[in-house]
Design a protein that fits this description.
The chain is mainly α. The protein has three helices and no strands.
Length: about 70
């Protein structure tokens, strides 16, 4: 369970700091040539990472997640 917690936090922080990484893993390999994620995708990805991290930390601190 501890490994899951560290992995989830690391992925959320990675998504906040470098959201284009997720785009390249999910869509980038399908596109031939030069292609970049849109600015809207990057902003929404960062917002989603922040929301996920805050909710996870609240669940962790409230004791709702079993350790």
């Amino acid at each position: 369970m501890i490994l899951f917690i560290f992995l989830f936090i690391a992925l959320a922080v990675l998504n906040i700091i470098y959201p284009a990484f997720g785009w390249y893993l999910r869509y980038g390999w399908m596109v031939k040539g030069e292609s970049e994620p849109s600015e809207a995708y990057l902003v929404m990805s960062r917002i989603g990472g922040i929301i996920a991290l805050v909710m996870f930390l609240l669940l962790l601190l409230s004791g709702s997640l079993p350790l």
